[in-house]
Amino acid sequence: MTFAPDNIMKLGMGFWGSKALLSAVELGVFSVLAKAPADLPTLQRKLGLHQRASRDFLDALVALGVLDRENGVYRNAPDADLFLDKAKPSYVGGMLEMANARLFGFWDSLTEALRTGEMQNEGKRGDADLFDSLYAEPKRLESFLQAMSGLSAGAAQVLAERFPWSDYSNMMDVGTAQGMVPVTLARTHSHLTGVGFDLPPVRPIFEAFAAQNRLSERVKFHAGDFFQDEFPATDVIVMGHILHDWDFATKKSLIEKAFSAVPKGGALIVYDTVIDDDRRENAFGLLMSLNMLIETRGGFDYTGADCQEWMRQVGFSATRVEPLAGPDSMVIGIK
């Protein structure tokens, strides 16, 4: 058997391609090309690129599969055009913008985090907690919530299709952000009403998003703190990209609150980048758990078997795991 270092080098130097993509998002490459394909001189002018750097940069994006080039004219690859054009509702680049502005630098301290178990973000310097600082700055909060919407859009659409919503009349999304989940579910199922549960500063952003989608009558905001307040009674509770932010005790407490709030036959749906039970395949989920090490004091990602066991411990009688979009899966508990 002949061995080559290809995979090792691809992994070790993977940050090259990552940063090229993040810089392309920052520069607005995909939004510019979504308006019209363009040649090299045009892109140099519109993006403010230096002559020395631009050709290699754009051709690297072609080689990475996010741009196409024909007869010297560049255009977006289909997935980049759908997901990286800021003008489209399917835009997921908000998460990449945050990765570029914050996470890329913090991950340079992963070795320290592995040795100390301590987070390496703003809190390392004694600054305000990430969520405290976000919720205190309206413009920054809005950008963050938009990023969370992009991250949840695909999962929300699959959730709307794969769960038996005809058996239920109402739902609540805990940590709702802009409200992508309740808006998507209500738009897909005309009988369904939705509630978004989040901290008070989120209200105007949530309500504007619901109004934009003409769902203000069926999608409402409930202000609350899920550490302090009980959840309002509802048929189905959704927690998307929430549980992994917190330590085990907090995870268990949130599941217990959900169990108390839903009726017999009601459901809790948790979705995250759930790690496969054998912990061998979902590299994204495992790396996300390392991101929780970087970003939080006690957060971690988990397997489907882990989450099902926690649900059963608090009283959910039937549990299952189903894939959603991308690396996300949902864990469902029925009371």
Salient structural properties:
335 residues; alpha/beta; 7-stranded mixed β-sheet; 15 helices
Task: Give an overview of the whole structure.
This protein has 335 residues and is α/β, with parallel strands linked by helices. The protein is built from 15 helices and ten strands. The strands form two sheets. The protein has a seven-stranded mixed beta sheet, with helices on both faces. β7 (236-240), α13 and β8 (267-272) form a beta-alpha-beta unit. α2 (14-27) crosses α7. The relative contact order is 0.09. The model has no long low-confidence stretch (mean pLDDT 92).
Shape: globular
Integer-rounded radius of gyration? 21 Å
Could you give a short account of the major beta sheet?
7 strands, mixed
Derived from helix and strand composition plus strand pairing, the structural class reads: alpha/beta
Task: Name the helicity range.
Answer: 40-55%
Count of alpha and pi helical runs:
15
Strand order of the largest sheet: 6-5-4-7-8-10-9
Give the low-pLDDT segments. Answer: none
Strand content: 5-15%
Distance between the termini: 53 Å
Number of strands: 10
> How would you name the oligomeric state of the polypeptide chains in this document?
single chain
Mean of pLDDT: 92
The SSE string, one letter per element, is HHHEHHEEHHHHHEHEHEEHEHHEE
